[in-house]
Amino acid sequence: MAALGAAVLALLCLGVGPGLGPGLGPGRAMAAVPLVIWHGMGDSCCNPLSMGYVRDMVQRRIPGIYVLSLRIGSSLVQDVENSFFMNVNDQVREVCSQLAKDPRLKGGYNAMGFSQGGQFLRAVAQRCPSPPMFTLISIGGQHQGVYGFPRCPGESSQICDWIRKMLDLGAYTQAVQEHLVQAQYWHDPLKEEDYRKKSIFLADINQERSINETYKKNLMALKKFVMVKFLNDTMVDPPISEWFGFYKSGQAKDTIPLKETLLYKEDHLGLQQMDKAGKLVFMGVEGDHLHFTEEWFYTHILPFLQ
């Protein structure tokens, strides 16, 4: 299958393997670096049409690689539900625990997040440096958040309609923040003060309230931070959030790139230093949110995993 179809990749946005190969020894190759992947909204760890398909693509080209597709909850149904309704900070803590207990990851790993899984894995990098994350690949992740919810998997589903209603009524109320995942990376440029004070997840990992030097140090330890933006994205508002840009404060029309933000200029996260060191990779791909071909994946993403 040359391309992942739109219906399949829509599952990714709302976004396990064999053991390691032989270790070092006389005449033996080094084992492949393990890969951890985190799905997006409305998806699950092991859907054969989404995360399972991505896992298989990687394993076909890197024999023996260990791929851990993260599951939050005791079942696939819970995994899907938690992508909508579980406190993101609790999810990150759960993932950090999973990674720390997995003996196959003790030497370090690469990470790849799809849609909201991109910013969630960045939180893992910032908060949980052991085991070490080497390269973070964010595919359609919204690192400055979103201000709009134009569509989500199953456009007519009651869940999507309910989420829109909750965000409109009060994204920054305590109850909504604690129980609705999408509210936790809702970034209202017209209510910046509310966002900074009341966002329980994104404002924290983006150093909006105070500077956590540990977050900065841990993120800067990455060898590469790859950010993939979909150039025809109709789901993420604004799409430039996928490259750490956002709306100018106080309005919701004009956007600014990362280098014009205070986050970059004052280097709250170390992104400026990482950029100057060649650690940041900004990659654009034609297509709507998470629509890409196998050929593109193998050509542009696979090299960061080898």
Task: Please give a structural write-up.
- The chain is of the alpha/beta class.
- It has a domain of 202 residues: Rossmann fold (3-Layer(aba) Sandwich), CATH 3.40.50.1820.
- The protein is 36% helix and 12% strand.
- The chain contains 13 helices and 8 strands.
- The strands form 2 sheets. A 6-stranded parallel sheet has the order 2-1-3-4-5-8, with helices on both faces. A two-stranded antiparallel ribbon has the order 6-7.
- Strand 1, helix 2 and strand 2 form a beta-alpha-beta unit.
- The longest helix is centred in the N-terminal third of the chain and has 14 residues.
- The N terminus is likely disordered.
CATH architecture of the domain at 35-144 and 213-304: 3-Layer(aba) Sandwich
- Helical content stands at 25-40%
Low-confidence parts, pLDDT < 50 over ≥5 residues? Answer: 1-28
Provide the gyration radius in Å.
18 Å
Largest sheet: 6 strands, parallel
The tally of strands reads: 8
> CATH superfamily assignment of the domain at 35-144 and 213-304?
Alpha/Beta hydrolase fold, catalytic domain
Largest beta sheet: what is the strand line-up? 2-1-3-4-5-8
Estimate the mean pLDDT confidence: 88
The CATH topology of the domain at 35-144 and 213-304: Rossmann fold
Residue fraction in strands: 5-15%
Give the helix/strand class. Answer: alpha/beta
GO biological process, one term: receptor-mediated endocytosis
Subcellular location: Endoplasmic reticulum; Golgi apparatus; Lysosome; Secreted
Signal peptide: 1-21
GO molecular function: palmitoyl-(protein) hydrolase activity
